[in-house]
Amino acid sequence: MVVVLKVRQYGAFGVYRPDGEPIQLGAKHQALMALMVTAEEGVRTRAFLEHTLWSFAQPEQAKASLRTALSTLRKHIGPTASAAFKANRERVTLDLSMIEVERDPARGEFMEGFELPHENAFSEWLSEMRSQASGTASVAQEQPWAPRDRSRVILDELLPSIAVLPFAQRAPGGSTAPLGAILSEELSRQLSRSQAFSVTSYLASRQFSLEDVRPAEVSSVAGVSYLVSGSVFVRVTILLRKLICMTRIGKKSFGRGSFVGAFRIC
Q1: In a domain, 97, yes or no
Q2: Closest residue by Cα to residue 163 from 228, 231, 230
Q3: Residue 77 · residue 36 · CB < 8 Å
Q4: Model confidence at 140, in pLDDT bands (50, 70, 90)?
Q5: What percent of the chain is predicted at pLDDT more than 90?
Q6: Which end of the chain is less congested by CB atoms within 10 angstroms, N or C?
Q7: pLDDT tier at 96 (50, 70, 90 boundaries)?
Q8: What is the pLDDT, as a whole number, of residue 213?
Q9: Per residue in 206-261, pLDDT tens?
């Protein structure tokens, strides 16, 4: 696949054309690129991007801001590089095979000196990524299971250790579908905010799958006491009830790729 963009993650964050020419981007566009290049399989939900980059905006305003940001980002990077971006009503996808990402911690901190004032959700994500990068860089490559927050080393030694593995998706194309990875990454992020566990980096744990290795083997490599794994079954059931008498008016179940019908109340 032809490389259409180069991204530098460590040190001063930067986006470049294939020949090394820097592309001047605003802070929000840089943050958007950072979120996309670090996403599992290059996929982020619109809801995640809206909440992370416009956490104080009203829902409709956040949706409009994301649409505008994607449009102007495409203009900045040009039509050739824009081909790497795909978006629908639910997700934004970046074809990572077309992006060359430089991941050299020797250049400095992850997105060194970067910040988005007043965007607490992005600040939390950035802090987590820096903690993961710091932990990974300090451990030998054959043992990538570093604690995500190096300032909690003593506390982590006392807490039960836990790792979240990518969820399997039981659906057509499940081996490449990103939904399971998105859910497991979010679960790992939420658990890491708890004071009850020492959570290993999802960047490290996502390399394992219980379909390929046994839990005991993962535990021996990871050095953890608990493993979280799961499966995602793509099936949604919608119920529409008339609240006055609690009468079920309609029910619609659908799987991946099927059409969702509309209901009418008479």
Answers
A1: yes
A2: 228
A3: no
A4: very low
A5: 38
A6: C
A7: very high
A8: 67
A9: 666 666 667 777 666 666 778 787 777 766 666 656 555 545 455 555 554 444 44
Instruction: Report if residue 134 sits inside a domain.
Output: no
Residue of higher predicted confidence among 152 and 187: 187
What's the CA gap between 33 and 181, in Å, rounded?
19
User: Is 24 exposed, middle or buried, given 0-12, 13-18 or 19+ CB atoms closer than 10 A?
Assistant: exposed
Residue 16: give the domain boundaries.
Answer: 5-107
Residue 77, domain member (yes or no): yes
128 domain-assigned: no
Q: Whose structure tokens read 């988005």?
A: 116
Q: In this structure, are 98 and 182 located in the same domain?
A: no
